[in-house]
Amino acid sequence: xKKWFRIRSRFTAVLIAALAxxxxxxxxxxxxxxxxxxxxxxxxxxxxxxxxxxxxxxAPGRELVSIKDPTVVSVGGEYHVYATTADTxxxxxxxYFGGFSxxxxxxxxxxxxxxxxxxxxxxxxxxxxxxxEPRNEWYLVYQTGLPSFSTLSDPSRPQxxxxxxxxxxAYPPIVHDTASDAGYVVDHWVICDEVKCYLFYNNDNNYFxxxxxxxxxxPNGFGDTVVVMADPGNNRIFEAINVYKVGDTGQYMMVIxxxxxxxxxxxxxxxxxxxxxxxxxxxxxxxxxSNPFMRHNNVAFAPGVEPWTSDFSHGELIRASxxxxxxxDPCHLQFLYQGKDPNVGGDYSQWxxxxxxxxxxxxxxxxxxxxxxxxxxxxxAVAADKCLDVPNVSTQxxxxxxxxxxxxxxxxxxxxxxAGELTVYSGGDRRCLDAAGSGTANGTAATIWxxxxxxxxxxxxxxxxxxxxxxxxxxxxxxNYATTNGAKVHLWxxxxxSNQQWTLA
Length: 505
Known about the structure:
By secondary structure, the chain is mainly beta. It has helices spanning 2-5, 13-28, 173-177, and strands at 46-48, 64-75, 78-87, 92-100, 111-113, 125-132, 137-143, 147-152, 165-166, 185-192, 196-203, 207-214, 223-230, 239-246, 251-259, 265-272, 283-286, 299-301, 313-317, 327-328, 334-339, 354-360, 379-381, 386-389, 402-404, 414-416, 422-424, 431-435, 446-449, 459-461, 467-469, 475-478, 489-492, 502-504. The strands form nine sheets. Strands 18-1-22-21-19 form a five-stranded mixed sheet, with no helix packed on it. The chain has a five-stranded mixed sheet with strand order 17-16-15-14-20, with no helix packed on it. It has a four-stranded antiparallel sheet with strand order 2-3-4-5, with no helix packed on it. 50% of the residues are buried. Mean pLDDT is 88; it is low at 1-37 and 368-374.
């Protein structure tokens, strides 16, 4: 089937019609031998927050009715979100909010409307934000009728956005030739591997496309457009494609929003071995209404939270890395999504979308209690024969760690993750071992902080018993060789001393 999916735009409309029949067969037929990553479960369970974010009236001259299509990164322990807004006149534009470390604070964050930046007014929607490491640039991708982008100096500074540029001047003919409405092409998504960058998007007829360029040429040179997946007339693949690298498993996961038989929005998922996979090379993972990636039948609301939506629509997984590889930790999945009052209908542009967060509750056994880098257990300081301990079982970000008599408490249970983190606690209380303030100097406090994937939360567990910061190379060190309860833990130049030796058991 692969040769049928690699149709180029020079092919005739007759062959495109044949493709529609073939791709439908691929989508509906039995899957080939599984290519799923071991760390991903074959079914998912989620717990949702309440409504976290509503639109603030920050758009000059417009009354906003919704906030939707969020993209999110975490830098220095703080989340930054860009999203679409819709107004009472049916207009689409974008906004920013951020600077918070806990999702309970998201609704209070100031929103800054991007029409006040060089991005300007008019149709701008469906943003995606990532850091392009090869050139040390932040890219905000969005749709303007064409796939567009701006660069940012920093994700916390929306005012730094450059004027829009387009990835391509026009869509290839195959995109329009397979569409019912030639003007409807949406939801652009960029992801890169070591060699190429790929631009995913879809038209209104359940066709999903991929254009490519090299990492060296990016953001220029997109072409060689192919159909990745198609199922004409079947809304189980509708829009909002996301593609992620799954940790270090060598796998990629594709998530696509569908419309269920009940009219409610939900997500299906597939996996593949490479980003240039097409058709049946994407293996169904959780891709039916009865076994979805995310739908109202596998999402429970947190205790005390009144169910507020039965739609789980356009959003993003919170990534373990902000860079162009879009890497996720398969053992700690959270998804920022848009939902709405189930009783509201009418024109789509007037639906009152709000933002919520789901957290996976059924991490697979291979995660060893939440990580894929090794088993969970106590981190014991060899010299003191005491455990790395969060004082008073605190979950407050910034709490400095200490050593204390080992007693088996949750504040002494540490999990190495595939992303290189050392985590403590679970669920909404999960925290990462963190070099305070991204410090790289001797004496930098070892603290806990909300996990954000930054380099100051990456650690190496070495064969000599040391634990070193991937950012600074400094060792996790018990201050002044102390052996008493309450001795502080910080970072220090590695010297081979016993106060820098640790065991995980």
